[in-house]
Write a structure and sequence with these properties.
By secondary structure, the chain is α+β, with helices and mostly antiparallel strands. The chain has helices spanning 10-13, 21-24, 30-39, 43-54, 65-72, 111-117, 166-169, and strands at 6-9, 77-79, 82-88, 95-100, 103-108, 122-127, 130-135, 138-141, 155-161. Strands 1-8-7-6-9-3-2 form a seven-stranded mixed β-sheet. A two-stranded antiparallel ribbon has the order 4-5. Helix 3 crosses helix 4 (43-54).
Amino acid sequence: MSKVLDYQYASQVIANYSESVKAKNEKNDCFVRAVASASGSSYDAAHGFVKDTFKRQDGQGTMFVDSTMLNLEGKLQEFGQVKVKFEKLPKNKIKNTYKLYGELIDRQKTVKSFIKDNARGTYIVLVANHAFTIKDGVLIDNQGEEFRPTRKVQSAYRVIEETVDPQLKLF
């Protein structure tokens, strides 16, 4: 079991990342990296999926992620060699309730708190102007983002890998 705040660089987790011409020429691509690392797809496959589905422009951030993800919820998505479904976590899974002066207060979970409460499974997590993956308690993010455990989780999506024929997965 991983400890809270185990960390991996997205560029080391994503299949064929170092060979991707698109990856070398991109910026503001945190959501593309999150989709690739969460789904197990290549960077180029995730890039094409995000470009087509989310209308992302090259070199620009991905807009309207929440509304587009809600439209995709529960529907099978195929890109590259992967098949996944996305499931939005309910608000009670991204908020903590505290008692303050006898009153119950809801506050957004921090990344650290989210990881602690969701140690199993794969999630695409959205914080202010950024997205990353949490996979079995390990934070997978861009280089330079690893020491920010107090960011507030705005929304999170469970990534459910659809069963692939084991014979096909070997190759």
